[in-house]
Here is the input.
Amino acid sequence: MRVYYQTFGCKANQYDTERMRQESEARGAQTTEVRSEADLVVVNTCTVTNQADAEARRFIRRLRRESPETEVVVAGCSAALREPEYRAMPGVRSVVRGHDPVAVASVVVPDYFAQIELRTGLDRIDPEPIGGDLLRRRRGAARGWLKVQDGCDRKCSFCATRLARGVSRSRPVEEVVAEARLMSDAHAELVITGIHIGHYGIDLEGAYSLSRLCATLLDRVPGVRFRLGSIEATEVDDLMVDLLSTSDARLVPHLHMPLQSGADPVLRAMRRWHTREQYRTRVLEIAERVSPLGLGADVIAGFPGESDRDHASTRALIEELPFTYLHVFPFSPRTGTAAAELPDPVPQRIAGDRARELRDIAQRSAAAYRASRVGTPAGVVPEGDGRRGLTEDYLRVDIGDREERRERGVRPKPTGGLVRGTLRGDADHLYIETPRQTPLINA
Here is the structure.
């Protein structure tokens, strides 16, 4: 059985796909990276926007046209909320409501059974997960995902993901540490991810916290650097700021802190739990102590009831704070969420114009930040063929000057670890200066 995996959505979804792959391979399935060679395709769906749902359905329909004999297994967030719709699609063998890797593997390899010995001494044939609870690597990637929790207890009015993922559940500390050790053998950087990682540990005995987990990982998993996934500004505590500023970039100085809006009336309608000023104050406090700092955020433009004044307030906040990138989306109502029923919708044309305006501001800020990093030290994790990589503060840069490589026929030396050096170039062409390299081979 040759299986191709297609993932839509966030890092948590990508992590879940790797667990599905690992469990299926443990049962005898073979992974293929060539879709046309697959006997079966596993589609791990996302439901963060209407567009995410639509992309998954378009992919399945296109696959059916291209390869009518290929069967499809649908899983993930959209599958959890729209199971009947996917089951009705031609070519879909099964739908798994959610992300359970054992459930997916049981569909991918339905005839697999393992014999287990019960304590009574009686033998019984039962399905048994054999892939293991710990992920060993993220196939074909320089950076690995380390999922520490799932679900969310917040009730943002626009969010459907919490409906698909359920309440917040934290993985035990020792399990996270054990997986990080396994993953560190294959990856120079591990990204701490989940659905609401700022709530890590509140359901564990002793009220553990994400910052304590990070301190534990830094202490017990050497030789790898860690990066936080998306985290709320109000959940970055003082210990976390200490680790970001004093760990010599082992906990890299990069934070993605969802903003959604810079106007209090909109934040209230969104059922967010911070005010504009609380967000602003915390970001400035962090930026005062952590430098360099890669800073990103999510913003929704055109939320129901958003006035011109509200948009101006968001624009002013984005211009004030030291963002190095933004993810800006026009509002998309999600079935089953409170926001879908709110009055005073903003016309899509206006929402689109507001989103473009905010993106333009973010692009100018990003260019200024990239320019400011010229001449400063950096550590880069090589990606792909080793020609480009990611700095600690989330800048994608060349490894060596690409113009020089083209003229002299050189390539970066292959490396499984960090490349350290000095950033050179300009905002449009930023690269890390490295020693003279070896001649290109077959390039």
In short: The mean pLDDT is 90. Residues 254-372 form a domain with the Transcription Regulator spoIIAA fold (CATH 3.30.750.200). The radius of gyration is 23 Å. The chain has four domains: 2-114, 134-252, 254-372, 377-439.
